[in-house]
Fold this protein.
Amino acid sequence: MKTPAVQKLAWERHGFRAANFAGTDSISRFGVAGTLDQIPAVSELPNNDAMQHLITTFQSA
């Protein structure tokens, strides 16, 4: 999973970015509004129970 070939494939086909993959194409080539060329920070998602509660709440709104 950490080989350059696999990371290149993940980047080109799915937009996954490895910490050490230096892609030459801009993220804009995926045509998805609101995406960034670099990820400035990350945060942990709530646990599954909390996420399911949020999803249910938003679906019923």
